[in-house]
Design a protein that fits this description.
alpha+beta, 18 helices, OmpR/PhoB-type_DNA-bd, GAF, GAF domain-containing protein
């Protein structure tokens, strides 16, 4: 099955595909229909761009002057891992054909680096530090679309919504705060058509994961302020919302399944979400009208009052969540504390794509920490849960550790080299 996030399948002719997509782009702009071979992820992005009234001939606008750019760079959580980005992608940025760029969660380019000649070419489309490349501002592009969908993606040539960008190809991956799991920016490589390969997408994705691991090792730089609100979402299908009033009464608000999903997603995206993006995170590819989402949000607003605001949809104050406690312990390399704080999967029955992604991310990080620790007590605790009882990898590691502990010098529990050869 073809990977929908890759621009070209094996054996595709880049020049021919670019021409086909360019014609499809023109047909969409003039008639509104999208034909093959346009990928679904690109078609959906074009529709979002049209809905946001992005000008097809437009250029990215400059949001940050030199002083504001310097301040944003100094304060941004990705600043400490810029040396890592340069280490992993620096050769690409200096080869005279590519650019390395890093943007914040709003799509504002904070760093754009590469060969001076390539940088000058990129200036013609305002691909410069301080410019805003969010999808709703600058059309379909890899960093902007990666942020919009919270997923690594390639955008090839004429797949770009704005014509001034269609001579470039790019691959980008979002980067998450390892404590809160929210998107804090994206890393991107931009160049020619040869970037439309599986290797470039895998490279930026691996770089993003390495940055998240480095951030987790560094730990939080400043203590988070105490939250007024709290949200329990682990090991339960209906979230519990704790407010100043409910703390006094001891009766938290129990949210329905859909409201639980919405609150979790808004907590995970404190900068806010457009209606289109929130609908995609909740319903995926299902054919759901915007009225359905607005009705759900209207009902939720009756419960939350001024805590929920719109344009974009966001929470005035981000609630502390119980998955924060697990993420904090993982970031501090304390798998025992993380396991103790983990009462079960995140909203386990939810089928919302955004919730599934957060659920898998947290569970995978926890499993990796447990496996890396090799602590028999922790491994056994994981296997004694309903969600970990069938984990064969953990079971095999526990068996190996207990066998080694029982026969530390290679006694009856360990085959000799002659016995292994005979097998």
């Amino acid at each position: 099955m073809r990977n929908p996030w890759l621009a070209l399948e094996a054996g595709a002719d880049p020049a021919r595909r670019a021409g086909q997509v360019r014609r499809a782009h023109e047909e969409f702009l003039t008639g509104g229909s999208i034909a093959t071979p346009v990928r679904d992820v690109v078609a959906e992005s074009w529709r979002r761009c049209a809905g946001a009234r992005v000008a097809p001939e437009g250029l990215a606008r400059i949001d940050l002057d030199d002083a504001a750019l310097a301040a944003c760079r100094a304060e941004h959580p990705l600043a400490p891992v810029m040396p890592l980005f340069r280490e992993l992608l620096g050769a690409i940025a200096e080869d005279g054909e590519h650019l390395l760029s890093v943007c914040d969660a709003r799509g504002r380019m904070l760093w754009v680096e590469g060969h001076p000649q390539v940088l000058r070419r990129a200036e013609r489309m305002n691909f410069v530090p301080g410019s805003r490349w969010a999808e709703r501002a600058s059309g379909t592009n890899a960093p902007g679309t990666a942020l919009a969908l919270d997923h690594p993606v390639q955008i090839f040539a004429s797949e770009h919504y704005c014509r001034p960008v269609q001579s470039w190809t790019c691959a980008a991956a979002p980067v998450h705060d390892p404590r809160t799991l929210r998107v804090i920016g994206a890393v991107d490589i931009t160049g020619g058509d040869h970037l439309a390969s599986p290797q470039s997408l895998a490279l930026v994705q691996a770089t993003a994961r390495a940055a998240e691991a480095r951030l987790a090792a560094l730990g939080p730089t400043t203590p988070a302020p105490a939250a007024t609100y709290a949200l329990d979402v682990l090991g339960r299908d209906e979230a519990l919302l704790h407010t100043p009033y409910t703390r006094a009464t001891g009766q938290p608000v129990r949210l329905g399944p859909r409201h639980s999903e919405i609150m979790l997603l808004l907590a995970a995206h404190p900068d806010g979400m457009t209606g289109d993006r929130l609908a995609h995170e909740l319903y995926g590819e299902r054919d759901v009208t915007p009225v359905t989402l607005r009705a759900e949000l209207s009902r939720l607003r009756h419960l939350l009052g001024p805590l929920l605001v719109s344009r974009p949809y966001r929470l005035r104050e981000r609630p502390a969540t119980d998955y924060d406690a697990v993420a904090d312990a993982l970031g501090a390399a304390d798998p025992g504390a993380a396991l103790a704080a983990y009462p079960g999967p995140l909203l386990p029955r939810s089928e919302a794509p955004g919730v599934i992604r957060l659920r898998r991310l947290l569970e995978q990080r926890l499993r990796r920490r447990l496996l890396a620790s090799g602590d028999p007590a922790l491994l056994e605790s994981w296997l004694c849960t309903s969600w970990g009882e069938d984990d064969l990898e953990v079971r095999d590691l526990l068996h190996a550790r207990t066998a080694r502990a029982a026969h530390p010098s290679g006694g009856p529990g360990r085959a000799t080299s002659a016995q292994r050869s005979a097998r």
